[in-house]
Amino acid sequence: MYAGLQELGVANGEDLKETLTNCTEPLKAIEQFQTENGVLLPSLQYALPFLDLHGTPRLEFHQSVFDELREKLLERVSAIALEGKVEERYKKLEDLLEKSFSLVKMPSIQPVVMCVMKHLPKVPEKKLKLVMADKDLYKACAVEVKRQIWQDNQALFGDEVSPLLKQYILEKENILFSNDISFLQNFFSPSPKTRRQGEVVQKLTQMIGKNVKLYDMVLQFLRTLFLRTRNVHYCTLRAELLMSLHDLEISDICTVDPCHKFTWCLDACIREKFVDNKRARELQGFLDGVKKGQEQVLGDLSMILCDPFAINTLALSTIRHLQDLVGQDTLPRESPDLLLLLRMLSLGQGAWDMIDSQVFKEPKMEAELITRFLPLLMSFVVDDHTFTVDQKLPSEEKGPIPYPSTIPEAFTKFMQENRIACEIGLYYILHITKQRNKNAFLRLLPALVETFSDLAFSDIFLHLLTGNLTLLSDEFALEEFCTSLFDGFFLTACSRKENVHRHVLRLLLHLHHKVAPAKLESLQKALEPTKQSGEAVKELYNQLSEKLELHKPSPAEVTETPSMELPLPTVPTPASR
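^ Negative elongation factor B, sequence as received from the core. Prediction below:
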C-alpha cells in the first residue's frame, strides 16, 4: 500500500509505527507527525478545528484533498501530452515517469503513473519489463502501453488474441446453427459495416491501433489457424479487420497492406451482393497489377476471396450472369465479366492450397468448366423456361413432354470432381429452391449426395438450403417430396456427419407441423441420437420430441350414439268441471 514512498523521502505508515514504538509521549509524536506530513498551508491550521466541530474525520478531509489533486494531476498530464514541441513534451513526461514510477504499485497513485505511460510513445524498456513481470500492473496498464509490450512479445500477444479468435468462430457457428430458420434472414444478411461492429473485430482493432507490427502478427495468426483448421471464417475476419481499420482511417496500416484497395472494392460488391461491370474492371485491374516478384500478395488476395461472404457474392453474380446469357443467346466463354467471376472464385477456393504450398500462382482454370458445365447449367434454365411457358399454354396447345426428371451424367461428374463447378452448382440449387421450383429441385437433388469434398453437407450450404426450403413448406406434406429430401439426401450423411444431423433437426423443429404424421414418426426414429452424438444433437432432438408431444392430437373421447327418438312432451289432462 505504501510501496515507493520511502524512495521519495515521504513518511509512511511504517515510519509512524516506528516513531510510536520508540517514543515516550505518543500524543506529542502523533501531533509532530501530522505537522510534518500534513498539508502545508498556514490558513488550513485554523480551518481543521472547524471541521472537527462538525465531526468530519481528518482522514475524510485528506482523502478528498488527495482525490482532487489526483484528478488535477491527471488532467495536467493529458494536457502536457498535447502542448509544445514533441521533444519537449515527451521529455517532461519521461521525467515525470522517472519520479513517479516507484509509486506504481500504490493503488491511489497508480492511475497517474499509468496515465503518464499511456501518453509516452516509447516507454523505457526497463519499465515495460517491470510492468510485464507483474500480473496486476500488466492488467492495469492502458492498451497503448500493452501495444509496446506486445510488439516484442508475440507469445503474450497470442495469449491475448486467442480467446477472441475462438469467440469469433463460435459466434459464426451459432448463427449457422440458429433455430431461427428463414429465407429472409440468414448468415449473409448483415451488411459488412454491421458485421464490423461486432465485439471481436472492435476489440482487435483497438488492440492493434496504428501498430503495423501487431497487425502483421494478427494476420499471421489467422493464416496459421486457417491452415491448421481449414475454417473459412478466419478469412472473413482477415477482411473485416482490414475494413474496420479502413473505417477508422488508420492510414499507417491501410497504405502498407497491398490488399487494401482490392478488399475495399470487394467490400462494396458484398454490400450489394453483386459484382457490377465497373467494379469487375477495378477488381481485374488489381489482379492483373500483381507484379513479378510480388506474387506473394496472391496468398493474401486468395484469403480475402475465400471469405464466405465473398464466395457468396461471386456465386450469386455468376448465377445472375448465366441467366442473362440465356436471354442474350450468348455462350459463357464470350462473357469477360463471367470469366473474371470464375477467376476470382478459383483464386478464393484455392486459398488453402496456395498458402500451404507457398506456391503463389493463380490456379489454372479448366476449359471444360466454361465449355461444358456452364452451358449445362444454362440448359437447365432453358428447361425451366420451356416447361413454364408450356404450362401457360391453352390445354389443346400444350406439349406432351413432362418436366425432365433425369440428370445428365456430366453434371453429376462435375459436381463430384470440380470444386468451382460444385460451388456454382450448389448456388444454382439454392436459386431454384428460392424460386419455389420444386420440379427442378427434385431433379437435381440426387446430385448432392456425392459432391466435391462433401460441399453439399457443409454448414453454410445446409444453413442456406434449410432457410430456402421454408418456401416449399407445403410440399412437406407429400410423401414423394419428403422421401427424396430426407431419405435420398439428408439421412445418407446423418450417421457420419453430426452437423447434418443438427441441420435436419433444425429444419424439422421449424416445419414438423407440415410433415405427414406417419413420415414424421419414421423420421423421429431415424434421427434418434446415439451414445456418440454430441450434446447439441441431443438437445435439438429433445426439443423436437417435446414439440411433437405437444402437437399430438388428444385421444378422442368415446361418446354414446344419441337416440334418434325424441321424447313426447307430457300433455296435461283438462280439469274436470
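DSSP finds 30 helices and no strands in the chain.
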